[in-house]
Amino acid sequence: MIAILGTGKMGEALLSGLVRAGRRPGDIMATARRQDRAEALRVRYGVRVVSNAEAAKTADTLILAVKPQDMAALLTEIAPFVPADRLVVSVAAGITTEFVESRLGASVPVVRVMSNTPVLVDEAMSVISSGAHAAEEHMRQTEDLLRPVGKVLRIPESQQDAATALSGSGPAYFFYLVEAMVDAGILLGMPRAAALDMVTQSIVGAAIMLRDSGEHPVILREAVTSPGGTTISAIAELERHRVRAAFLDAIEAARDRSRQLASG
Ligand SMILES: NC(=O)C1=CN([C@@H]2O[C@H](COP(=O)(O)OP(=O)(O)OC[C@H]3O[C@@H](n4cnc5c(N)ncnc54)[C@H](O)[C@@H]3O)[C@@H](O)[C@H]2O)C=CC1
Ligand SMILES: O=C(O)[C@@H]1CCC=N1
């Protein structure tokens, strides 16, 4: 039995992924703060919606998917009910395994995960790190949970905040880029729907080439960039506006914010 505690955007994305992967809804529990939300999850997925205490007592694996700012309160609430052999998986940005362990006490195995919203289309990037009491079997169980919804990579916990900035938040940067490019299409007089189609297909095509060709992104970009052509005119403007430097600073800021989150 798996329980997802906190079923907002990420919790629900993981829940839907488990159901798509063939887990029986009867073997999944969810918790929600609001009654209407609980009812919606029941209807949509056929899972049991229970209290945090019941989930903590009953499930073999607890997936904690509340916001980092709500994690301390949730851990205090469930601590009296979590037996020492439960696998606890936290997907919250910035929350260390030590933060979870120190509040649950004893030797509870904790695995820290950073995934991303492409869980919804089985194309997530999930990175996982083990806490002090998590053994190989707990890492394997976590991989088995996440592999049906995308790629899974083990990383040292010291890299989790960087991974949060890079792949956890990553999809947002691409959506932001798409918005900006569609705006550019509008500026050039293109209908919005056509501009969105063109940009979306370009980003999908580029992503698949990147994933499947085995080529370095520089090689792929150079193949588009004809001497004296259009692409280099655009790249020159991006460089003039220091877009690369902006990405370095932006992702560093996200990493720093992830580091702060455990303290509220
Ligand atoms: N949205 C994203 O792309 C990603 C989010 N995350 C992490 O996932 C976690 C959740 O983020 P979102 O889903 O975006 O936020 P959200 O605000 O959509 O979801 C959090 C949910 O937890 C519920 N909640 C809070 N306290 C609760 C409690 N004591 N008992 C039961 N439910 C409770 C809230 O009502 C809400 O539905 C965060 O820790 C975030 O860092 C991780 C990777 C990506
Ligand atoms: O913005 C956030 O804090 C969460 C964590 C990674 C993606 N979304």
From TrEMBL:
Its EC number is 1.5.1.2. Pathway: Amino-acid biosynthesis; L-proline biosynthesis; L-proline from L-glutamate 5-semialdehyde: step 1/1. Keywords: Amino-acid biosynthesis, Cytoplasm, NADP, Oxidoreductase, Proline biosynthesis. It catalyses: L-proline + NADP(+) = (S)-1-pyrroline-5-carboxylate + NADPH + 2 H(+); L-proline + NAD(+) = (S)-1-pyrroline-5-carboxylate + NADH + 2 H(+). The keyword Amino-acid biosynthesis applies. NADPH binds at residue 52. Residues 2-94 form the Pyrroline-5-carboxylate reductase catalytic N-terminal domain. Its main location: cytoplasm. Signal peptide: none annotated. The keyword Cytoplasm applies. GO terms for cellular component: cytoplasm. GO terms for biological process: L-proline biosynthetic process. It is an enzyme of class 1 (oxidoreductase). Gene3D superfamilies: NAD(P)-binding Rossmann-like Domain (3.40.50.720), ProC C-terminal domain-like (1.10.3730.10). GO terms for molecular function: pyrroline-5-carboxylate reductase activity. It is found in: Cytoplasm. NCBIfam families: proC. HAMAP family: P5C_reductase. Catalyzes the reduction of 1-pyrroline-5-carboxylate (PCA) to L-proline. Belongs to the pyrroline-5-carboxylate reductase family. This is Pyrroline-5-carboxylate reductase.
